[in-house]
Amino acid sequence: MKIAILSRNPNLYSTRRLKESGEKAGHDIEIIDTLHCYMDITSNRPAVRYKGEALPKYDAIIPRIGASVTFYGTAVVRQFEMMGTFSINESVAISRSRDKLRSLQLLSRKGIGLPKTGFARHPDKIDDLLKVVGGAPVVIKLLEGTQGIGVVLAESRKAAESIIEAFMGLKANILVQEYIKEAGGADIRCLVIGGKVVAAMKRQAAPGEFRSNLHRGGSAELIKLTPTERKTAVLAAKAMGLNMCGVDILRSNSGPVVMEVNSSPGLEGIESATGKDVASMIFEFIEKEAKPNKTKTKGKG
Prior knowledge:
globular, Rossmann fold, alpha+beta, D-amino Acid Aminotransferase, Chain A, domain 1, 301 residues, Dna Ligase, domain 1
């Protein structure tokens, strides 16, 4: 199969692993810089151009769209969809998962476990907003933040009010969530492919840090999921419409709660922690599912 990986950096671990794994499986793999693509939106003859010429017809694409380029990246994916190219994650699903508020609302509608969450731009009664999520301590998040940036733990009501007022002064949209103390600074990353959890790891925050992101000094180890955790991850991926994603779960006293669904999960941490060849599993899914014009949205939405 002829497959394109949409990635801005060919040297990233995930991009390299996908290229190596795809070529090992006998596929023709090309890495395309998403931002250097430009689109010919001619009626009935959509095309994606790159370095002065139209890109060839691909059997499938693997979008590795960074959060900072979501708008343009999903537009490129949508153009491929209009050309009938199979994408492991469709443009609408990527956009859906990148919108923190929309994703939480969709998960809530499906009855999936979530931390108590409030959303605000300019609350007249900050104390009522805090009451909605159970009071301090609370986690306050910028709606546009990624990889732990713009995420603050307010340990007291006074601190929470000060942080919320500061964000309000910046005219920022914020999420206020209950702090799941019993999680102990740890979360679980579940890698879902084709409606199945294929790998899972526990990420533990570094001492003095509550964010468990590996690039912030967190550690990772293999973990055994409970049936409820496995089901929660699968349902979250389905709610987003993602064929391949990372689902981040916290263990709370009321059961597993979903923190985020990531449409372009990194492979390095989970492959190292679990010893599983996740990259090969991605190509096995593509080999099974990729068919011309199979995309559900066909560029809609």
